[in-house]
Amino acid sequence: MEVRSTAQRDLIRRLFRGNYTHPTADEIYELARRENPTISRGTVYRNLNFLVESGEILRIPSVGGGPDHFDVTTSPHYHAHCRLCGRVSDVPLPYNAWLSALPHGLDFTVETHQLMLFGTCKSCTNKGD
Amino acid sequence: MEVRSTAQRDLIRRLFRGNYTHPTADEIYELARRENPTISRGTVYRNLNFLVESGEILRIPSVGGGPDHFDVTTSPHYHAHCRLCGRVSDVPLPYNAWLSALPHGLDFTVETHQLMLFGTCKSCTNKGD
DNA sequence: AATGGTAATAGGACCCATTACTGATAATCG
DNA sequence: CGATTATCAGTAATGGGTCCTATTACCATT
Q1: Strand C at less than 7 A from CB of A112
Q2: Which nucleotides of C are covered by protein (CB under 7 A)?
């Protein structure tokens, strides 16, 4: 299937360049609307899925109902979720670090895994609990 | 606030006794309806929340859109999610095992964490991919 | 430059899991 | 027993996301 370059797709790509804030689909939608007020939510979702498929960005699946986040850093790594501001940040813990600790003889074939820390980020802590 | 004992709450409690299948709210709803056909979804959700609050069961938050699962085993532990049948099983990896590996000087105060393995469970593997 | 084929779009309907609201029912206390 | 009010059944509403339909935009070819 031929892949076309469109203004909307390129806009979304640009919104990610140098953006390490792990935005949600809705945040991307709001940013995109500032430059293209008629862009639709469907287009944002479709292109985020496309960019994840093509390996340009990473999806950080929600844990427990909230929205998914997206990440320009495509090498797999872990994330921390601030339960006060809802923002997601990177955790400099080597991926697969603990997987070697997995017991053998598990009745389960592991393909991937997801680790998420929950707590309070620096800036929320500083603002006073 | 006074806590009352009701048939619906006790029924849901009973459905968990000896049930290590990590059911979803909907699975509990279907089981409950076999004994009490007029029980409502709202009641199931309300009581699952109640039982989680009171520490009688554990909520396993969904990762990536699916429904939450619930667990009679209340001591924290890890889970594996079969992406074929959707069932959740326990992983005998000591909780907090890897947390000691966390780098110090993180700009984040960790309160809890969630680890989920994704892959294929034994019975789905046996059924042939 | 116009054309055909088809990818991608805007906008909205729809889906799923869950929560919130609204009387009605019933468990507990006095 | 009767009053209080937690809990209930039933339904509407919510939030995040997908899917559908008509329309538009891209691009290779004449």
Answers
A1: no
A2: 6-12, 16-21, 26-29
Identify the structural domains of chain A with CATH numbers, from first to last: 1-74 (1.10.10.10), 77-129 (3.30.1490.190)
Strand D proximal to A25 Cβ, under 7 A: yes
Alpha carbon A47 to chain centroid distance? 14
pLDDT of residue B1: 77
Write the DSSP string, A20-78: -S--BHHHHHHHHHHH-TT--HHHHHHHHHHHHHTTSSEEE--BSSS--EEES--S--E
pLDDT tens figures, B72-87: 999 989 999 998 899 9
